[in-house]
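Risk mitigation, structural track. In case the binding assays with iron/sulfur cluster fail to produce interpretable data, a predicted complex structure has been prepared as a fallback.
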Amino acid sequence: MKQTITIDPVTRIEGHGKITIQLDEHGEVAGAHFHVTQLRGFEKFAEGRPFREMPGLMARICGICPVSHLVASAKACDELMAVRIPQTAITLRRILNLAQLVQSHALSVFYLSAPDLLLGMDADPNRRNLLGMLAVDPQLARNGVRLRQFGQQVIERLAGKRIHPNWVVAGGVSDPLTEVARDAILADIPEVKRIAQQALAWFIPLIDRFRDEIAVFANFPTMYLGLINPDGSLEHYEGILRIVGWKGAHVIDINPNDYMDTIGEAVEDHSYLKSPFFKPVGYPGGIYRVGPLARCNMATRAGTPLADAGLREYQSLSWEERQSSFYFHYARLIEILYGIEKIEELLNTRSILDKHVQALANVNASEGIGVSEAPRGTLLHHYRVDDNGLITWANLIIATGHNNLAMDRGVLQVAQRYVNGNHIEEGMLNRVEAVIRTFDPCLSCSTHAIGQMPLVIDLVDDGGTLLERVQRG
Amino acid sequence: MSSVKTLKINGKDVSARTDDTILQVIREHDIFLPTLCHIEGLSAVGACRLCLVEINGSSKLRSACVTQVEEGMEVVTDNERLQKYRRMILEMLFVEGNHVCAVCVANGYCELQWLAERLGVDHTRLIYLHPDKHVDASHYRYAIDHNRCILCARCVRVCGEIEGAHTWDVAGRGINAHVVTDLNTSWDSSPTCTECGKCVQVCPTGALFKKSRAIGEMAKDNHFLPYLKTMREVNKNDR
Ligand code: SF4
Ligand code: SF4
Ligand code: FES
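Fallback model:
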């Protein structure tokens, strides 16, 4: 008898992900899928609107990473204006983007995944959350809160509003940085740098405890896509858009203007999320991953002293080992450290307080593409406008989408190892969910509850009869 | 005839000049009364009906901005009935357009939004019409987004009365009414528009805006109006 197990966050009806595991007649896992039932329609909303509304409009795609959309969208708008924006504006946007990286990674590692890492995948789900963490390792929990707060404060100090700041605009940013804000951020740096180092030191010894999970947490070779500097260091704002293959072998540098020739987008019945793939290899063979793991596997150095050391230690693991998506967490911690160091470096540049931070121009090009690295990976905004600057067409490739294929395969891999049709255990489900969480997909579900999602698993036979229901949350 | 009239506003005795409107007296006494189509320095047209007041207990409500004071009048500016009507008017304005404040250029600077906040309109009980309206961004400096136009006709008046260009007009009837430039041509091909930008500054919402402005950046500045109006009157008297 064919059975289907569905893991579905019950308290959310939209913007959530769902996992389905299909069993064959022997109760063995036959297939698995990660569904995204989130509705997106921003490309349509954009049509007919003035291009200058885009950054602010696109920032509303996501309450967790609005800054990333702001940045990619504003870059696309710069292209529509065909201007070179002031250097200070670029630096300020970079700082904002890095602050977003730090706060988002802190949320992912400390709030969502650390409870599993600290208390174990089989721990009591009622304790496996930030509060449970506070009881066992209060300092760790506090450190996570502090890192996230730091990132949010930087955003607030630059842009004035944490969620959906409208500070990033076509042509630059709307207001220059004040001396007071700069000094306030710089004053926090030594403390958060120390915390970020402690966080790395906490994580590394954990690796041995999770050998079992590492082996099956989306552990397979894929290509990687991301921005990178010509010197091989980490880059989140400009740089070269590159795909690398096995052992970092250079596959291709993509000219963002030609991304459509390189990246295909498959649409699957089971998900609203598009599944991008590398066209020359085809679908689904052209699987690649983006995000912190991709960036830290691609880079040959970080570009700041402490993060350089962190990356070197990480890369002392073999390339084969680093194919496990479990290492997304590791990569996030390196990037948090990098982000803090880089923010400090950028704030100390000479022209950072310059008052000229916005280029003014009307529309001068009919098409614009903006690429940036969001915490979760490469983000691409592509707009076309009419002569008056009204959007006629828009296409977005969001970070979570790139990882869609890998998440799908990751779920299958974990399910095959831990799910057995006759018996459903909480810890087993948690692992299926945890593999998704390593990618930190940008869905409301991934951050819905602190540490765990409310779940229901239905065991259904092929006639649609409910055989068993396991529920939690 | 006396050049002063006495009347009661909310039970308080006040005096007014003979040719004052009720709104003028109300404003002089710092009493809050919502208005949208009215703006100091332009003629009053009584288009929005937000300034409704009750006079002598009559069930027929009058617009304060276009009603002249009378001796012995008893005016009530605020009670449950008036509040109900005012809220209803705002709700209708919202459902007849497409207002998404969060992504509007005028967010934070919009008179419609302020009034909605002030009068407690945080949702509408009416069904949104979601009309299919367009944006004319053909002018190189300014744009009009008809989705946010509330047909107050301030732009029409400032352009005709102050700038003397009379580029703007209202075309169509009822729910199909909309503002047009000249004979309903695109703004960039207007032979009369002097590009002074006064319409943009007096527009109470994000309907008229500078193209260089992004979300929440279109602060309006219409302090020039009373000054220009006085200058115009001085010039007229000199002639
Ligand atoms: S015009 Fe005013 S009410 Fe309408 S969307 Fe803009 S801010 Fe909101
Ligand atoms: S464009 Fe503005 S000023 Fe003109 S009628 Fe519409 S809302 Fe009023
Ligand atoms: S302000 Fe009196 S009718 Fe509009």
